[in-house]
Write a structure and sequence with these properties.
Layout: E1 3-12, E2 16-19, H1 20-23, H2 31-38, E3 42-45, H3 54-69, E4 78-82, H4 93-101, E5 107-111, H5 117-130, E6 136-144, H6 154-157, E7 162-172, E8 177-185, E9 193-197, E10 214-218, H7 220-241, E11 251-254, H8 259-268, H9 280-283, H10 290-300, E12 309-316, E13 320-327
Helix pairs in contact: 3-4, 7-8
Length: 330
């Protein structure tokens, strides 16, 4: 049976950098507290005046991935976007990217799975490849969380940022590529992280944000504990499914939600932090974009050698969580 193999990665982020020091003038917080509690030093904020819509960010990340892969848009059979902040309720972000890329032969649709959106989208594209219905796919994770942040809530506004990442998958009959993907959800805990109707007041220094008509609410403490347990369990499930042990993992690329969650998960799995790729200090939590952005940076930094066992793990609203194990080969 064929499997999807990543042959190109790409990412992009808005130009506006919002530092922790700037946040001190918005809410009752300080740089030391934010870094200690989350590991975040700055995040990127999209501007409505700088061509940084969800479609713009996803398109640029996709072009970067396609360029690396050497694949022209008209060769794409499928485009799947993981996002909860599309520019419009419909058409989908994937369809809007399809138009800008002129990928006329691709079926395009979105997946809404919170921060797990990229792994859900990756799984759907890989399933299509395994079924023989698709040979080449573009998978994106893109978010503009700044547009749904309550900037008066210091427990959430310090965590979130904007960005986009993408990968190109091609059909491969070998031992390389996506070995397996494992997805879970628990709708009974949806009240821990959800959207609430209504716009909220924007700080003067963030008037560039194109605010949406709903905002994010989160119960951080309960979510924190649940995330660690779910990430640990799903990672072990992926390893067991592939007859591997924790020591077989060469690199773990987790969802960049909180450095303490990442550290606790790595400790539970007995994976050294030297094997864990993190960039949360520069981007914050970019939801479904965090894994593909981190994957692209790790790839371009030469940290993912041929045949490396790469473990992806994510957790998000829904609640949703997932893991994917890859045998790397670009």
């Amino acid at each position: 049976m064929p499997r999807g193999r990543i042959v190109g990665t790409g990412s992009t982020a808005p130009r506006r950098i919002l530092s922790n020091v700037e946040l001190e003038g918005i809410v009752d917080t300080n740089n030391e507290w934010i870094v200690r509690r989350s590991g975040i030093e700055e995040r990127r904020i999209s501007s409505k005046d700088l061509n940084e819509t969800t479609t713009d960010l996803a398109t640029q990340a996709s072009k970067n991935a396609l360029d690396m892969a050497g694949v022209s848009p008209d060769k794409l059979d499928m485009i799947v976007a993981g996002t909860v902040t599309p520019d419009r309720q419909f058409p989908s972000a994937a369809c809007m990217v399809q138009e800008t890329l002129d990928a006329t032969n691709a079926a395009a649709f979105d997946v809404s799975a919170g921060c797990s959106g990229f792994l859900y989208a990756l799984s759907m594209a890989n399933n299509a490849i395994q079924c023989g219905n698709c040979k080449t796919a573009l998978v994106m994770g893109v978010e503009r969380l700044s547009t749904i942040v309550n900037w008066e809530d210091r427990g959430t506004c310090v965590l979130l940022g904007d960005g986009a990442g993408a990968v190109v998958l091609t059909s491969e009959k070998s031992d390389k590529g996506i070995l397996s993907t494992h997805l879970k959800s628990d709708g009974s805990l949806g009240n821990l992280l959800y959207s609430s109707e209504g716009k909220l007041k924007l700080p003067e220094i963030l008037s560039c944000i194109d605010q949406k008509s709903f905002h994010l609410k989160m119960e951080g403490n309960r979510l924190f504990k649940r995330a660690i347990n779910c990430l640990t369990d799903i990672a072990r499930e992926a390893l067991t499914h592939n007859f591997m042990k924790e020591t077989d993992v060469d690199t773990m690329i987790p969802h960049q939600a909180n450095i303490r969650i990442i550290q606790a998960t790595a400790k539970n799995l007995n994976i050294s932090m030297d094997k864990v790729y993190t960039n949360i200090h520069r981007y914050g939590n970019t939801s479904s974009a965090s894994i593909p952005i981190a994957m692209d940076e790790a790839n371009r930094e030469g940290l993912l050698p041929n045949s490396a066992n790469v473990l992806l793990v994510s957790f998000g609203a829904g609640l949703t969580w997932g893991a994917s194990l890859l045998k790397w080969a670009i």
